[in-house]
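dude i think i finally got it to work??
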Amino acid sequence: MNSFEFKQNGNLYELTNGSAVLLTIPMADGAADTFEKIEDGAWKWTRKLSAPTDNMRLEFDTASVPKYTMVPAVNYNGNGWGDSEEYVGDSFEGTPWTYEWHRVMIPACTYTEMENSFAVALMAVQDDTPSCSLYKVESGMERHALVWPEQAGPKMLGRHEWKEAYMGSMEPRDTFEGIIFACPVEIERHQVRTLLDFAWRFYGHTLPAPMQPEDMWRYSIAFMKSLWTKEKDGFVAFNRGLQWYNSSCFYAKRDQIKYELGWVGQSASASNTLLYEYLRTGDEDAYSKASQCLDAWPKYTKLEGVEGLVQIKFDGAPIDQTRDIPVDACNLGQGAVQYFLAADLMEKCGTPRPEYIDYAMGMVNFVVSRQLESGEFAKSWNKDGSVRQQNGTIGAFLIPAVLEAYKRTNDKKYLDSATKAFDCYYKELADNGFTTAGALDTYCIDKESSSPLLEAALALYDVTKDEKYVSCAEDVAWYISTWMMHYTAKYPAETTLAKIGYDTLGITAVSTGHNAVDQYCLRDVKGFLKLYDITGKKQWQERGTALWCAASQLISDGTLCIRGKVRPAGSQDEAVFQTRWGRPTLPPFNPSEWLVMWPCAFRMETLRATDDWSVFKRGVDEIEGKI
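look at this
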């Protein structure tokens, strides 16, 4: 236990650990500050004023120089990796950034690790609506601030563009509260896990399952079948999703960039789900649609002169393709994994397709032959096999496919390749405190790139039984948790998210350039639950189930109507704009209205992976150590 204590020193309040001062708070005229202990290392800070006001700042300065800072899912140590529009540094043209509470994964949270080997954080209480700010002051210390009324500036990040600053208003009041947190730093750039543990127990709550898995399965099969498309040249794929077209006043298949092997379109994964359905129920239509699609991609997508490289995305029929679309690591990795599985499923169906193995091995051999000595794969390639873009943790998407090649061939070169790649990408996370470039609509720090790293760590543990990979997997899971909403946001009653009762707890944000939340956390559910099975740590089960429940909202049963638009059965939004980031045609705090294939595919991959759906049926029924 730490000997933390608040003391008054002249006109300052100081938080000490018995031997060193950790932070200082200037006393305010006409105000009384109190610090109520919540648990060791956490306090509720209450400021009571002599007269009400509609403008307030609760702020403290660190007492030691900052070494690493974070605003979860918004700003990792100043950002700046890549080239996407994002909040870079701690200010813009000399004015500190101010972020709305709902943009941050712990409400209005700011976090600093200091040179004295302690970390401190400041955050809002549940259901309050301040903004937050984190910036270096002239003394070299880091200032943490909660700011009322809600505001964002000096400019505000929107959907791949900057918007004007936002300034809200509030009724005057005489009491303001915040939460102060402190802990020792044992793992530099990663001690935020101690804060995350507190926040999960402090803000979290039980979560019911929004829809039962049996219903999800049925609706998802219907949605997948509805997106199945056959082109004029015989090419077969699943359309990437449904968009609302004002000209026809209904949701219809996307009319450009229609098909994709993995990532958004998930043609291979959707096909495998339909094969599962055939094996499960004897559904001949499911088998027909799946087999035609799986047969088509190897036939139509191979690139001449580059062994193993394939086209992964099309506007329409491959014969008509003119757009120059790069071949990315994410699509190759997901495509190869799904084609290995497809070969196994076809064997079970009694219709062997050994050519599927050849198709997958070709992709694997292409990337392994071009792997750098450091272990890094490229982010993307041109159709002639030359590198389009080199850097980013996105290359980790290839590791599961390379490991699968090892399992099937017992050729050690594939295990060596996977191990070397994992070491490279895990070192990036360990050294920097973040991963990069997995979200294909941005090139920046993100969450998507960490998902295959979690999958790879657990797969390497399965293959090698080396316990170090369990520790690595936990490190990745804690990083993913920095992108996870730890609270239920209470939106104004007139907003869409309030009207539909959307619960933000457990959902994850996309990237520092893309501050919305989406269902991509479905990819991490299996990893979190497996970590619980291996370690017995209850929070991994709670978090994994919360990811599932959060990402299972807004699945249509065929009658769901949002903003006057009825959604087809099994469809679901790609993203939810839980903050002031979104499509220009939508007001803040709305679902995306882009009903895309990939959440459906990932949902079904998770259900396919286990026959025991009990955890998905009951949701989060308790939080261990709830405060």
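The chain has a mean pLDDT of 96.
im so relieved honestly
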